[in-house]
Amino acid sequence: MTEHTVPASELYTESFAADPYPVWARLREQAPVCPVSSPRFDSYLITRFDDARDALTDPRLSKDLYGPGEHYLRIFGPNSAELNKNMLNSDPPEHTRLRHLVSQAFAPRRIEALRPRIAEVVDGLLDKIVPSGECDLMREFAIPLPMVVICELLGVPEIDHDRFIGWTQVIRTSGSIKRSPEEERAAVQQAQLQLHDYLADLVQRKRTEPGDDLISALIDACDQDGRLSERELVSTTFLLLFAGHQTTADFLGNAVLALLCHPGQLDLLRERPELLPNAVEELLRYDGPLPVASPRVATEDVEYDGMRIPRGSIVGVVLNAANHDPRRFDDPDRLDVRRTGPHLGFGYGVHHCLGVSLARMEALIGIGALIDRLPGLRLAVPVDELRRLPPASPFRGLLELPVRFTTGR
């Protein structure tokens, strides 16, 4: 295969942000392992389903970005070390140790016990929305729902929830506000530092006043037998907080938009609500919130589809491209809530999303309630006027989702 490096400027444009799937389709067919050059770092993108699944379990593609080369500096910036030294950026056995410490909190039976509380949060948010006949579903529903749930699971006081939303939204929406690169970096770094300082302080408070929450359980693991360092404790808390709401919020927005753009599918769900669990999986396959899996680094020369990826290269597995691969899915660009079959929306292998049960439950309850309580749900603006996260964002989501619906039933 002939290597042709693609400048990131050819990929990450406004039109790409609106609809990246034609670009992914072109790369999948013409350059399934594609070198991409950008100002911050060069990488290789893998876009075919079978290659992607193999890469997600390839031990030669390390998730530990903190070893030789300090790849985390190029990817995350100078403030990343304190917040990103966690199981997401580690390999076994470190990953195994860290994941085991938090996995119990996300066991299916424990998540099932959260069902009444999640339903209560959903109903509370909708009680505020329903009388108005219109709202911004991102700001008033998709973002606060998973934030409240993960904050309560971690043990973050309710009085601080709005602060968390503020800090995480600065990081999430980086690049969406017109300001200089220096101002942008300063704003993100300040939000990261504020989050780190708050979490470090919260950990100290939980040490003297522990509760029935995940942070207190992690502190116990840290203090009782040293299975968790102080840095790992704060970083793991940050990961659970950010990952526990960011992707779910973006997924809720993407899912509702997909249904509004496919009214026949929305009507089908109204007629057959038993299809909702299947629909959640299809909506995640169709337009997932994490287009590219978190970065890996090649610890030796590797080869995919005849393309050599040199040792030390950063590798991105394009989940959303793989999930539209016609080699795996029939008519992959068609939304069909009756479709069955595995996808890569939650990742694959040892780094498969830890919070999958929680994300599924929030989506099931949240989307089901929206369909039930917001009759006549429709976009309030043309779809091409919707504001999205910046093209270079690692997430795929909406900045806002203005909708209208019928009041009264």
UniProtKB/TrEMBL annotation:
PANTHER family membership: CYTOCHROME P450 YJIB-RELATED, P450, PUTATIVE (EUROFUNG)-RELATED
Annotated protein name in UniProt: Cytochrome P450
Record-stated family: Belongs to the cytochrome P450 family.
InterPro entries: Cyt_P450 (IPR001128), Cyt_P450_B (IPR002397), Cyt_P450_CS (IPR017972), Cyt_P450_sf (IPR036396)
Record's keyword terms, sorted: Heme, Iron, Metal-binding, Monooxygenase, Oxidoreductase
Lineage, broadest ranks: Bacteria, Bacillati, Actinomycetota, Actinomycetes, Pseudonocardiales
SUPFAM superfamilies: Cytochrome P450
Pfam families: p450
Organism: Amycolatopsis viridis
